[in-house]
Q: What sequence folds into this?
């Protein structure tokens, strides 16, 4: 079982374009109900296109960079946080989840998680999430950059074919819509 976690971030400094920096693999022992499973992990920092301060749109014929991910935005309803919204029982809302390539000035913090055992996504998430956020802090303090995440932390399952599968979840709360009178 192999997972790839991605934390997409925007940088303030100008980073070299199209760079991949990776760590050596390291092993993390994970205690399961009856045994310990060794999980192999590796860190990767990927940069894409340079920043554009003039906010011009990149050319539509430019190649796409990085995995397509969901930025956690929903263009419907009354949005609460990153991945939930409230709707009235009588409302019909069309929900569309849009996946985006990396934008100019963004980097990806990627952690690969691999195990011979069948591990659930939650285990991969619990390992990769704190590593990713710690890595952002370390990089920002080491080089003095301002780095902020621009998308939700995401886990992709790597399929046997080498392609990956991304599952996005969304919480819909149905609540009666009332009119408040003065």
A:
């Amino acid at each position: 079982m192999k997972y790839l976690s991605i934390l997409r971030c925007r940088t303030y400094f100008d980073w070299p374009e199209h760079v991949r920096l990776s760590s050596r693999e390291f092993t993390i022992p994970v205690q399961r109900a009856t045994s310990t499973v060794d999980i192999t992990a590796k860190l990767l920092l990927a940069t894409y296109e340079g920043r554009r301060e003039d906010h011009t749109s990149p050319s539509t014929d430019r190649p796409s960079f990085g995995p397509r991910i969901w930025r956690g935005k929903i263009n419907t309803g009354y949005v609460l946080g990153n991945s939930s919204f409230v709707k009235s029982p009588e409302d019909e809302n069309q929900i569309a989840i849009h996946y985006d390539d990396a934008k100019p000035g963004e980097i990806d913090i990627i952690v690969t998680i691999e195990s011979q055992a069948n591990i659930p996504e939650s285990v991969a998430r619990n390992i990769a999430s704190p590593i990713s956020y710690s890595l952002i802090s370390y990089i920002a303090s080491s080089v003095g950059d301002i780095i902020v995440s621009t998308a939700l932390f995401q886990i992709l399952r790597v399929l046997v074919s080498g392609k990956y599968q991304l599952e996005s979840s969304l919480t819909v709360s149905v609540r009666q819509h009332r009119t408040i009178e003065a």
Q: What stands out?
A: Residues 2-53+67-174 form one domain.
